Amino acid sequence: MQNTQDYQSAFVDYLKNFSKIREPKNLYEPINYILRLGGKRLRPVLTLMSAEIFNCDYKKALDAALSIEVFHNFSLVHDDIMDAAPLRRGQQTVHEKWDTNTGILSGDAMLIMAYQLFENYEPETFHGLAKLFSKTALEVCEGQQYDVDFETRDDVTIPEYLKMIEYKTAVLVGAAMKMGAVVANASKNDQDGIYEFGRLLGIAFQLQDDYLDAFGNPETFGKQVGGDIIENKKTYLYLKALDFLKASEKNQLEQLFTVNLEDNFEKIETVKQFFTTSGSAEATQKEIENYTNKAFLVLETLDISEEKKVLLKDFGSALMTRKV
After folding, report:
1. Which CATH architecture fits 1-183?
2. Secondary structure (3-state) at 186
3. What is the domain partition of the chain in residue ranges?
4. Which pTM does this prediction carry?
5. Is CATH 1.10.600.10 the classification given to domain 187-324?
């Protein structure tokens, strides 16, 4: 087995060969730009790791890993347009650097290119990958729609929120791992099991992201701490606080999430205080641990060595204790 850095390095090298100059420039330059902006490369690394977990040379899974990364970045390009976001990974978003029409069209091309990469596999593997990809891509769109809907609703429930992050984030993590298993021609039980492991870990990952957004270290988090609070996002922390707070405090928190201020420092600090004193911050950490442990239980159903189960547990644990 390789380590995470080895998978990242191999993937980035493969990505460089994929990101070549093509015509028309105004279609392909934005694609190369977003793909080269970096990021954690979490999903392609999971695809490569999963292939090796099931006794396959990880290099055979590079096209599947690239497909996942191209699709993920396609969704970011379109999400940024919908959110009118000026920055992505500290750089201009595609629609800001070029324009909205370019962002839409380049994003569309990326979705097609993601599918195209499956053509490099044998028919049976192609079919398995394409079927999984279609299901996952549609679920990601559904998750994005839920997220948009929640912006104008004041009655979002915790089960609804968990479903939204499952579709918007976690299913792609699950699919990334299952793709590695499909390329490795693993059994159906192992393909489904590694998907479930990834899905549960993906939910824990997003809850951890929500927590770090409020309580992370600004120097290591990589994004503005308190961004979700500024944008009035109804995260797990917020919804759990509403469950725990007394009526007067609940009304105060709800009121804070209806305003946009020039100076958000006081708003962020007040909201964080509510999250802490209500017990919401602690409850969120427990839920992160809960989903992580559920993921680890799934590993017991997989037909792999104990050594490989430990590797996956270590990876999951590192993911849940990250500061970025």
Report:
1. Orthogonal Bundle (1.10)
2. coil
3. 1-183, 187-324
4. 0.94
5. yes
Task: State pLDDT tens for residues 83-110.
Answer: 888 888 889 999 999 999 999 999 999 9
Q: Which residue has the tokens 């596999």?
A: 121
SS3 assignment for 40-64: CCHHHHHHHHHHHHCCCCHHHHHHH
Positions in the chain whose pLDDT score sits under 70: 219-224, 323-324
Question: Tokens at residue 252, please?
Answer: 């105060």
Q: What is the pLDDT of residue 222?
A: 55
Burial of 141 (0-12, 13-18, 19+ CB in 10 A): middle
In the DSSP assignment, the letter for residue 222 is S
Give the whole-angstrom CA distance, residue 76 versus residue 34: 9
Q: What 3-state DSSP class applies to 87?
A: strand
Q: Where are the alpha helices (DSSP H) in the chain?
A: 4-18, 25-35, 42-53, 62-83, 94-97, 100-116, 123-150, 158-165, 171-183, 188-215, 218-221, 227-230, 236-244, 247-256, 265-278, 280-298, 306-320
